[in-house]
Design a protein that fits this description.
With about 110 residues, this protein is mostly helical. About 60% of the residues lie in helices and about 5% in strands.
Length: about 110
């Protein structure tokens, strides 16, 4: 579970908790606030990961995920595809190389 209160300073948070969840094979449920809300804009099928910041919404989503394992698995698979495409080792290496001076990059 990745609840996050909508505060100005939280706009600068990253998706690290989401990435950590994928790394351990867990389906994260995320507050529907930045930075997590950007996921649904990039990949609409991931909107099911987002939860309104209300206790009842969290309870309902947790119960829904527990009751619908097939849907949860599809969400998880879609998230793994997103993470692999946008945050995998190839992308990280390319970003690091782009920051290096041209002479050092080879």
């Amino acid at each position: 579970l990745c609840p996050l209160i909508a505060r100005p300073e939280n706009v600068y948070k990253s998706l690290i908790k989401c990435l950590d969840a994928v790394q351990i094979g867990a389906l994260p449920l995320l507050s529907d606030t930045p930075p997590y809300s950007a996921l649904a804009k990039e990949v609409p099928e991931l909107a099911g990961l987002l939860v309104a910041n209300e206790a009842e919404a969290w309870i309902e989503r947790i119960e829904s995920v527990a009751a619908h394992a097939d849907s949860a698995r599809r969400l998880y698979d879609a998230l793994v595809r997103y993470v692999t495409r946008h945050h995998g080792a190839d992308q990280a290496g390319a970003r690091l190389l782009s920051l290096m001076p041209r002479e050092a990059a080879g």
